[in-house]
Amino acid sequence: MAVEASDGPASFKRSSASKSNQLHSEMRNSASDRKESLLEKKIPKCDDSEDEEDNMSLSAIRMKVTHDNDKKATPNALKKSYDDSDDDDIPLSARLPHNTNLGESTLSVKRPLDEIGSLHSSSKKSKLSNPGSSINAKQISVKSDAKVEEEEDDDDIPISGKMNKVVKLVDKPSSSKKLKNVTKVNKGAAPSFKKKEKVKKSGNESEQLSSGDGQKKWTTLVHNGIIFPPPYKPHGVKILYKGKPVTLTPEQEEVATLFAVMRDTEYMQKEIFKDNFWNDWRELLGENHVIQNLKDCDFTPIYDWCQIEKDKKKQMSLEEKKALREEKIKQEEKYMWAIVDGVKEKVGNFRAEPPGLFRGRGVHPKMGKLKRRIRPNDVVINIGKDAPIPECPIPGESWAEITHDDTVTWLAKWRDPIKPNKLKNVSLAASSSWKGQSDKEKYQKARMLKSYIGNIRAAYTKGFTSKDITKQQIAVATYFIDKLALRAGNEKDDEEADTVGCCTLKVENVTAEGHNKLKFDFLGKDSIKYENTVEVELPVYKAILKFQKDKQPGDDLFDKLDTSILNAHLKELMPNLTAKVFRTFNASFTLDDMLNKETKDGDVAEKTAVYQHANKQVAIICNHQRSVSKNHSAQISKLNEKIDELQAVLKELKIDLDRARKEKPPLKRSSDGKNKRNLNPEAIEKKIAQTSAKIEKMQRDIHTKEDLKTVALGTSKINYLDPRITVAWCKRHEVPIEKIYTKTLLEKFAWAMDVDPDFRF
DNA sequence: TGAGCAACTTAGCATCTGTCTA
DNA sequence: TAGACAGATGCTAAGTTGCTCA
């Protein structure tokens, strides 16, 4: 079956960045070529089996290519294989000492990751080396292959095991005596799920892939709750109202201070921000307060006081700063860890959000509103039934509720004071097994789409001309999501910024410009502008004109569609397929494709430049933008000045070289006023080379800075690029993984470090 | 069937921290 | 050794998705 129309996918050019988008277009063409061959020739062997083969460890590669990077975390030390923990029949908790009490000194030091690896690894090797588990030999249809891929890859199975009845209790905080008792009860508890067994029994493909909503996520869960910001300390600095100092109560002063420190931000230029602040602050001031409007308030004294405090902090000695940091760590240490089924895991956000003024993005109707202080009685704690209930850190107060819900992964939650129908959750850090497993499942699903994409594209191409308007809209929307990496686009209420995604595009967001060109112009997530002019296939162009006919600005372009209809349709095409999978698929596919086409022989710097280039293309595809930093132009000017100076030096050196060759002394004084030494021609040539290299480096820096000033590379690296592509490429090309990933990302992607060097997305 | 909710992921900006340079 | 700077990390807003219930 043909995957694309014979003339290939539409070529896309973003008006604002034509060069890069031409590349984008080329990439897509090449990508589709490859996909087509995949369908016609059947998918190659499923790569997960490659994970199971013996492969050169990353640490070995690092030893080969780096000798001077010892201070950084070694990937070997960071290996924390989920494969290991998942595959064993022995529950993790059974392999770790029970009765582990969080917050005790035994847990005050982070368990080294290599130790975690050693806890799990022994039984893995034997299983992984089992040739019988390889799926290389399987040559079956595309869909079957994809299914096999899932089944063979044990790691894709949700952590969750059997369904467990949710037990909910409402407890009051217990005494320490009670905590000890509960800990003892916990001693005997052991996780009972066996993932591997579950998979083999289950014949339901989608169930295997699902992240397991409503399924049991843990058996034992121990943690210490969350920490709250210290109470407000009044400073007593008065604001001026009509030029006269006004005394405020501590509550009024606290909110005034939150406003004062916003002086240099763009929020202060927005009337909604100031209006919302005034409404909330006025309530605190009371009706008969001397302050009757915001316009006559001068917050400068508080602003100045804050600046002085900031400077004082800056001026502290290194020792003082270090002491403060250590004190903070000491206070927070016990909140930083949780024990899940006997495994110590890092907690992500264990601090309650401090009070502040709401900083909604774009034109948000609630910006400037007071986000009140979160108190323990706002917070629901989720913890193991037998675990000690965390002590409430604020004396005299208590948690809102204690639950023991083993079907969720949050440790604590509270209602967002700004949007009361939204919850804020405290969960494990990105480096945790839960997040790692979920990440891997995400990439496996995206990888699975590779096997289906040909059929999906053929289906939506057919749908472009469907007489059923709903089917036609689904087809065009899917095309946009696939080709332009648009987000699904849920409905939003009036209390949010007015942004759109694919399903919520308005008539005015897409303009037909003739010659099959469509101009997209809208605000997407975070009110980031999406502006792109693309050439589409003729039936798509015609369909858009049809959808716009007889509609007014403000009307929905896809009036027969919403995200649930779209996703329901996608699920008919591939198990568990949703709109967002396309973004992951296209991002990872592009990286894989570009790295493999563009990496040439060269030094590490050249190879990392190739990676950065590919990363940038993905960021452009996903429309990951950032605002130009405040001092960008200053930095560029400074670099240009330095280049000018160096060029003057270079000029002088060339004269000196000329003179030296004629055995004449250098010019008496150099341009910077310093006396010069008498150097031989070789030494001057060396200096010339060094100076030229400096100039070249600075010119490259300027180019890179300009090139990336509005592109955010991090978002795609963290959320869209399958780390196995990166790790395998690093292994193949002897690039130290530390050149690509920070320490934190190495921890987050620990599950990917064992990948075979031949891995392809 | 659709609204509302809950859970979790994705996102950009602010702040912190470590390194480089004068 | 201080200040500048870049990169790393933290924070929290803003999405997507799936489920429940009327």
Automatic annotation (TrEMBL):
Q: Which SMART domains match?
A: TOPEUc
Q: Which reaction does it catalyse?
A: ATP-independent breakage of single-stranded DNA, followed by passage and rejoining
Q: Name one GO biological process term.
A: DNA replication
Q: Which PROSITE patterns does this UniProt record tie to the protein?
A: TOPO_IB_1, TOPO_IB_2
**Principal location:** nucleus
Subcellular localization, per the record? Nucleus
Active-site residues (renumbered): 720 (o-(3'-phospho-dna)-tyrosine intermediate)
Chain segments carrying region Disordered: 1-215, 661-682
Feature: compositional bias, Acidic residues: 148-157
EC category: isomerase
InterPro entries registered for this protein in UniProt: DNA_brk_join_enz, DNA_topo_DNA_db_N_dom1, DNA_topo_DNA_db_N_dom2, TopoI, TopoI_C_dom, TopoI_cat_a-hlx-sub_euk, TopoI_cat_a/b-sub_euk, TopoI_cat_euk
- Provide the alphabetized UniProt keywords: DNA-binding, Isomerase, Nucleus, Topoisomerase
Coiled coil as UniProt keyword:
no
Q: Where is the composition biased (Polar residues)?
A: 13-24, 98-108, 205-215
Q: Name one GO cellular component term.
A: nucleolus
DNA topoisomerase I eukaryotic-type domain location is 357-734
List its EC numbers: 5.6.2.1
Q: Where is the composition biased (Basic and acidic residues)?
A: 25-47, 661-675
Task: Give GO MF terms, alphabetically.
Answer: DNA binding; DNA topoisomerase type I (single strand cut, ATP-independent) activity
Regarding protein family, the annotation reads: Belongs to the type IB topoisomerase family.
Its function, per the record, reads: Releases the supercoiling and torsional tension of DNA introduced during the DNA replication and transcription by transiently cleaving and rejoining one strand of the DNA duplex. Introduces a single-strand break via transesterification at the specific target site 5'-[CT]CCTTp site in duplex DNA. The scissile phosphodiester is attacked by the catalytic tyrosine of the enzyme, resulting in the formation of a DNA-(3'-phosphotyrosyl)-enzyme intermediate and the expulsion of a 5'-OH DNA strand. The free DNA strand then undergoes passage around the unbroken strand thus removing DNA supercoils.
Please identify the protein, giving its name as recorded.
DNA topoisomerase I
Species, as recorded: Trifolium subterraneum (Subterranean clover)
